[in-house]
Protein backbone atom coordinates (compact mmCIF):
# COMPACT_ATOMS: atom_id res chain seq x y z
CA UNK A 1 0.00 0.00 0.00
CA UNK A 2 1.17 3.53 -0.77
CA UNK A 3 2.22 5.70 2.15
CA UNK A 4 1.37 8.83 0.14
CA UNK A 5 -1.62 10.88 1.30
CA UNK A 6 -4.97 10.07 -0.27
CA UNK A 7 -6.14 12.88 -2.53
CA UNK A 8 -9.66 14.00 -3.41
CA UNK A 9 -9.83 16.16 -6.54
CA UNK A 10 -12.87 18.35 -7.17
CA UNK A 11 -13.12 19.92 -10.64
CA UNK A 12 -11.81 18.06 -13.69
CA UNK A 13 -11.87 20.66 -16.42
CA UNK A 14 -9.23 21.79 -18.89
CA UNK A 15 -6.73 22.24 -16.07
CA UNK A 16 -7.98 19.83 -13.44
CA UNK A 17 -7.96 16.69 -15.58
CA UNK A 18 -4.29 16.74 -16.61
CA UNK A 19 -3.21 17.94 -13.17
CA UNK A 20 -5.01 15.10 -11.40
CA UNK A 21 -3.51 12.66 -13.89
CA UNK A 22 -0.03 13.93 -13.07
CA UNK A 23 -0.67 13.10 -9.41
CA UNK A 24 -1.75 9.60 -10.41
CA UNK A 25 1.48 9.22 -12.42
CA UNK A 26 3.40 10.33 -9.32
CA UNK A 27 1.85 7.47 -7.35
CA UNK A 28 -0.98 9.21 -5.53
CA UNK A 29 -4.36 7.59 -4.98
CA UNK A 30 -6.78 10.13 -6.46
CA UNK A 31 -10.55 10.11 -6.06
CA UNK A 32 -12.28 12.73 -8.17
CA UNK A 33 -15.61 14.40 -8.61
CA UNK A 34 -16.90 16.73 -11.29
CA UNK A 35 -20.20 17.41 -13.01
CA UNK A 36 -19.30 15.87 -16.40
CA UNK A 37 -19.44 12.09 -16.71
CA UNK A 38 -16.87 12.01 -19.53
CA UNK A 39 -14.34 13.71 -17.26
CA UNK A 40 -14.99 11.12 -14.55
CA UNK A 41 -14.51 8.38 -17.13
CA UNK A 42 -11.21 9.99 -18.16
CA UNK A 43 -10.02 10.01 -14.54
CA UNK A 44 -10.93 6.35 -14.10
CA UNK A 45 -9.14 5.44 -17.33
CA UNK A 46 -6.02 7.17 -16.01
CA UNK A 47 -6.08 5.07 -12.84
CA UNK A 48 -8.10 7.29 -10.53
CA UNK A 49 -11.41 6.62 -8.81
CA UNK A 50 -14.60 8.41 -9.81
CA UNK A 51 -16.88 9.48 -6.97
CA UNK A 52 -20.61 10.11 -7.17
CA UNK A 53 -20.56 13.23 -5.00
CA UNK A 54 -18.30 15.70 -3.25
CA UNK A 55 -19.06 14.05 0.07
CA UNK A 56 -18.04 10.64 -1.25
CA UNK A 57 -14.85 12.02 -2.80
CA UNK A 58 -13.57 13.80 0.31
CA UNK A 59 -14.77 11.46 3.06
CA UNK A 60 -11.46 9.62 3.53
CA UNK A 61 -9.11 12.16 1.97
CA UNK A 62 -5.95 13.43 3.58
CA UNK A 63 -5.72 16.20 0.97
CA UNK A 64 -8.56 17.83 -0.96
CA UNK A 65 -7.67 19.79 -4.11
CA UNK A 66 -10.18 22.01 -5.84
CA UNK A 67 -9.92 23.47 -9.35
CA UNK A 68 -13.14 25.20 -10.35
CA UNK A 69 -13.86 28.37 -12.38
CA UNK A 70 -14.59 31.14 -9.87
CA UNK A 71 -15.53 32.21 -6.33
CA UNK A 72 -19.21 31.14 -6.56
CA UNK A 73 -18.19 27.61 -7.53
CA UNK A 74 -15.62 27.42 -4.72
CA UNK A 75 -18.27 28.50 -2.23
CA UNK A 76 -20.77 26.02 -3.68
CA UNK A 77 -18.45 23.03 -3.28
CA UNK A 78 -16.97 24.11 0.08
CA UNK A 79 -20.03 25.04 2.10
CA UNK A 80 -23.34 23.40 2.94
CA UNK A 81 -24.26 19.91 4.15
CA UNK A 82 -22.95 18.24 0.99
CA UNK A 83 -19.79 20.36 0.77
CA UNK A 84 -16.16 19.81 1.57
CA UNK A 85 -16.07 21.38 5.02
CA UNK A 86 -18.91 19.22 6.35
CA UNK A 87 -17.56 15.96 4.93
CA UNK A 88 -13.77 16.07 4.86
CA UNK A 89 -12.10 14.66 7.98
CA UNK A 90 -10.70 16.97 10.61
CA UNK A 91 -7.00 17.51 9.97
CA UNK A 92 -7.36 17.32 6.20
CA UNK A 93 -5.53 19.84 4.04
CA UNK A 94 -7.63 21.73 1.48
CA UNK A 95 -5.63 23.16 -1.43
CA UNK A 96 -7.77 25.46 -3.55
CA UNK A 97 -6.10 25.90 -6.93
CA UNK A 98 -8.95 27.90 -8.47
CA UNK A 99 -8.48 31.56 -9.39
CA UNK A 100 -10.82 33.49 -7.11
CA UNK A 101 -10.95 36.72 -5.13
CA UNK A 102 -8.44 37.03 -2.29
CA UNK A 103 -11.29 37.68 0.16
CA UNK A 104 -13.00 34.42 -0.79
CA UNK A 105 -9.79 32.59 0.10
CA UNK A 106 -9.48 34.40 3.41
CA UNK A 107 -13.10 33.60 4.30
CA UNK A 108 -12.69 29.96 3.32
CA UNK A 109 -9.59 29.55 5.47
CA UNK A 110 -11.42 31.02 8.46
CA UNK A 111 -14.46 28.79 8.01
CA UNK A 112 -12.30 25.71 7.49
CA UNK A 113 -10.30 26.38 10.65
CA UNK A 114 -13.48 26.04 12.68
CA UNK A 115 -13.83 22.52 11.21
CA UNK A 116 -10.21 21.59 11.89
CA UNK A 117 -9.34 21.74 8.20
CA UNK A 118 -6.20 23.51 6.99
CA UNK A 119 -6.32 25.59 3.80
CA UNK A 120 -3.93 26.87 1.18
CA UNK A 121 -4.89 29.08 -1.74
CA UNK A 122 -2.68 27.90 -4.59
CA UNK A 123 -3.75 29.28 -7.98
CA UNK A 124 -1.62 28.46 -11.00
CA UNK A 125 -0.28 29.97 -14.18
CA UNK A 126 0.80 28.17 -17.33
CA UNK A 127 -2.44 27.21 -19.01
CA UNK A 128 -3.40 23.82 -20.35
CA UNK A 129 0.09 23.15 -21.72
CA UNK A 130 1.66 23.89 -18.35
CA UNK A 131 -0.84 21.60 -16.65
CA UNK A 132 -0.15 18.74 -19.06
CA UNK A 133 3.62 19.17 -18.80
CA UNK A 134 3.54 19.67 -15.01
CA UNK A 135 5.49 22.93 -15.30
CA UNK A 136 2.93 25.29 -13.78
CA UNK A 137 3.84 28.28 -11.66
CA UNK A 138 2.01 27.90 -8.36
CA UNK A 139 1.56 30.91 -6.09
CA UNK A 140 0.52 29.96 -2.57
CA UNK A 141 -1.08 31.71 0.36
CA UNK A 142 -1.29 30.20 3.86
CA UNK A 143 0.80 28.86 6.72
CA UNK A 144 4.40 27.72 6.24
CA UNK A 145 3.78 24.33 7.86
CA UNK A 146 0.86 23.61 5.55
CA UNK A 147 2.88 24.73 2.54
CA UNK A 148 5.69 22.38 3.57
CA UNK A 149 3.21 19.50 3.92
CA UNK A 150 1.74 20.23 0.48
CA UNK A 151 5.07 20.71 -1.27
CA UNK A 152 5.52 17.11 -2.56
CA UNK A 153 2.08 17.26 -4.18
CA UNK A 154 2.72 20.69 -5.66
CA UNK A 155 6.08 19.49 -6.98
CA UNK A 156 4.20 16.89 -9.05
CA UNK A 157 2.10 19.65 -10.63
CA UNK A 158 4.43 22.55 -11.20
CA UNK A 159 7.94 23.86 -11.56
CA UNK A 160 7.92 27.27 -9.84
CA UNK A 161 6.26 26.98 -6.44
CA UNK A 162 6.38 29.89 -4.01
CA UNK A 163 4.71 30.70 -0.70
CA UNK A 164 3.72 34.34 -1.19
CA UNK A 165 2.33 35.15 2.26
CA UNK A 166 -0.77 34.57 4.41
CA UNK A 167 -4.17 33.39 3.19
CA UNK A 168 -5.27 35.27 0.07
CA UNK A 169 -1.72 36.14 -1.00
CA UNK A 170 -1.64 33.46 -3.67
CA UNK A 171 -4.81 34.88 -5.18
CA UNK A 172 -3.41 38.42 -5.10
CA UNK A 173 -0.29 37.30 -6.98
CA UNK A 174 -2.45 35.36 -9.45
CA UNK A 175 -4.49 38.50 -10.10
CA UNK A 176 -1.25 40.35 -10.90
CA UNK A 177 -0.24 37.45 -13.16
CA UNK A 178 -3.50 37.70 -15.09
CA UNK A 179 -3.02 41.43 -15.51
CA UNK A 180 0.44 40.90 -17.01
CA UNK A 181 -0.73 38.06 -19.26
CA UNK A 182 -3.71 40.00 -20.62
CA UNK A 183 -1.67 43.10 -21.37
CA UNK A 184 1.03 40.94 -22.97
CA UNK A 185 -1.45 39.10 -25.20
CA UNK A 186 -3.02 42.40 -26.19
CA UNK A 187 0.40 43.82 -27.16
CA UNK A 188 1.19 40.67 -29.16
CA UNK A 189 -2.17 40.86 -30.91
CA UNK A 190 -1.62 44.48 -31.88
CA UNK A 191 1.85 43.62 -33.18
CA UNK A 192 0.45 40.77 -35.28
CA UNK A 193 -2.12 43.00 -36.97
CA UNK A 194 0.49 45.74 -37.51
CA UNK A 195 2.95 43.27 -39.05
CA UNK A 196 0.38 41.65 -41.31
CA UNK A 197 -0.99 44.96 -42.57
CA UNK A 198 2.59 46.02 -43.28
CA UNK A 199 3.14 42.95 -45.51
CA UNK A 200 5.82 41.38 -43.33
CA UNK A 201 6.31 37.59 -43.11
CA UNK A 202 4.52 37.04 -39.80
CA UNK A 203 6.21 33.79 -38.80
CA UNK A 204 9.68 35.22 -39.42
CA UNK A 205 8.81 38.39 -37.55
CA UNK A 206 7.46 36.56 -34.49
CA UNK A 207 10.49 34.26 -34.43
CA UNK A 208 12.94 37.14 -34.31
CA UNK A 209 10.86 39.17 -31.88
CA UNK A 210 10.65 36.23 -29.51
CA UNK A 211 14.44 35.98 -29.50
CA UNK A 212 14.90 39.51 -28.24
CA UNK A 213 13.65 41.75 -25.46
CA UNK A 214 10.09 41.51 -26.81
CA UNK A 215 10.16 37.76 -26.25
CA UNK A 216 7.97 36.25 -23.56
CA UNK A 217 6.43 33.02 -22.37
CA UNK A 218 3.12 34.37 -23.65
CA UNK A 219 4.50 34.81 -27.17
CA UNK A 220 6.14 31.38 -27.06
CA UNK A 221 2.91 29.70 -25.95
CA UNK A 222 0.54 31.68 -28.18
CA UNK A 223 2.60 32.20 -31.35
CA UNK A 224 0.99 29.26 -33.14
CA UNK A 225 -2.46 30.45 -32.09
CA UNK A 226 -1.78 33.77 -33.77
CA UNK A 227 -0.25 32.22 -36.89
CA UNK A 228 -3.01 29.66 -37.41
CA UNK A 229 -5.89 31.67 -35.96
CA UNK A 230 -6.38 28.66 -33.71
CA UNK A 231 -8.39 29.76 -30.72
CA UNK A 232 -9.27 26.38 -29.24
CA UNK A 233 -9.51 27.20 -25.54
CA UNK A 234 -6.50 26.59 -23.35
CA UNK A 235 -7.70 29.44 -21.14
CA UNK A 236 -11.06 30.90 -22.08
CA UNK A 237 -11.85 34.58 -22.56
CA UNK A 238 -14.75 34.06 -20.11
CA UNK A 239 -12.28 33.13 -17.37
CA UNK A 240 -9.86 35.94 -18.17
CA UNK A 241 -12.80 38.34 -18.05
CA UNK A 242 -13.52 37.07 -14.53
CA UNK A 243 -9.86 37.47 -13.56
CA UNK A 244 -9.65 41.02 -14.90
CA UNK A 245 -12.65 41.84 -12.75
CA UNK A 246 -10.80 40.44 -9.74
CA UNK A 247 -7.62 42.44 -10.34
CA UNK A 248 -9.36 45.73 -11.15
CA UNK A 249 -11.56 45.42 -8.06
CA UNK A 250 -8.66 44.45 -5.81
CA UNK A 251 -6.53 47.29 -7.18
CA UNK A 252 -9.29 49.78 -6.49
CA UNK A 253 -9.53 48.50 -2.91
CA UNK A 254 -5.83 49.11 -2.26
CA UNK A 255 -5.60 52.37 -4.25
CA UNK A 256 -3.46 51.08 -7.14
CA UNK A 257 -3.99 52.64 -10.57
CA UNK A 258 -4.15 50.23 -13.52
CA UNK A 259 -4.58 52.52 -16.54
CA UNK A 260 -3.44 50.01 -19.19
CA UNK A 261 -5.01 47.10 -17.38
CA UNK A 262 -8.37 48.86 -17.26
CA UNK A 263 -8.32 49.35 -21.04
CA UNK A 264 -7.42 45.69 -21.66
CA UNK A 265 -10.14 44.61 -19.22
CA UNK A 266 -12.65 46.49 -21.39
CA UNK A 267 -11.27 44.88 -24.55
CA UNK A 268 -11.63 41.44 -22.98
CA UNK A 269 -15.19 42.33 -21.96
CA UNK A 270 -16.03 43.55 -25.46
CA UNK A 271 -14.69 40.35 -27.02
CA UNK A 272 -16.86 38.33 -24.67
CA UNK A 273 -19.89 40.49 -25.47
CA UNK A 274 -19.38 39.70 -29.17
CA UNK A 275 -19.76 35.99 -28.51
CA UNK A 276 -16.10 34.99 -28.25
CA UNK A 277 -16.08 34.16 -24.54
CA UNK A 278 -15.52 30.47 -25.14
CA UNK A 279 -12.38 31.03 -27.20
CA UNK A 280 -8.79 31.04 -25.95
CA UNK A 281 -7.58 34.39 -24.62
CA UNK A 282 -5.25 34.65 -27.61
CA UNK A 283 -8.49 35.52 -29.45
CA UNK A 284 -7.83 39.09 -28.31
CA UNK A 285 -6.36 39.14 -31.80
CA UNK A 286 -9.93 39.07 -33.13
CA UNK A 287 -10.76 42.24 -31.21
CA UNK A 288 -7.77 44.06 -32.71
CA UNK A 289 -8.69 42.81 -36.16
CA UNK A 290 -12.23 44.13 -35.78
CA UNK A 291 -10.93 47.50 -34.64
CA UNK A 292 -8.63 47.49 -37.69
CA UNK A 293 -11.49 46.95 -40.12
CA UNK A 294 -11.52 43.17 -40.59
CA UNK A 295 -14.88 41.50 -41.14
CA UNK A 296 -14.85 38.35 -39.02
TrEMBL record:
Show where the 6-phosphogluconate dehydrogenase NADP-binding domain sits.
6-165
Q: Does the keyword Transferase apply?
A: no
What Gene3D superfamilies does the record point to? N-(1-d-carboxylethyl)-l-norvaline Dehydrogenase, domain 2, NAD(P)-binding Rossmann-like Domain
Which Gene Ontology molecular-function terms are recorded?
Answer: 2-hydroxy-3-oxopropionate reductase activity
Per UniProt, residues of the 3-hydroxyisobutyrate dehydrogenase-like NAD-binding domain are: 168-287
Q: Could you tell me which SUPFAM superfamilies the record lists for this protein?
A: 6-phosphogluconate dehydrogenase C-terminal domain-like, NAD(P)-binding Rossmann-fold domains
**What InterPro entries would the database entry show?**
6-PGluconate_DH-like_C_sf, 6PGD_dom2, 6PGDH_NADP-bd, HIBADH-like_NADP-bd, HIBADH-related, NAD(P)-bd_dom_sf, Tartro_sem_red
Instruction: Say if the entry is tagged with keyword Oxidoreductase.
Output: yes
Superkingdom of origin organism: Bacteria
What are its E.C. numbers? Answer: 1.1.1.60
Swiss-Prot/TrEMBL keywords? NAD, Oxidoreductase
NCBIfam families (alphabetical)? tartro_sem_red
Q: Which family does it belong to?
A: Belongs to the HIBADH-related family.
Name-wise, this protein is: 2-hydroxy-3-oxopropionate reductase
Please name the source species.
Streptomyces tibetensis
Lineage, broadest ranks: Bacteria, Bacillati, Actinomycetota, Actinomycetes, Kitasatosporales
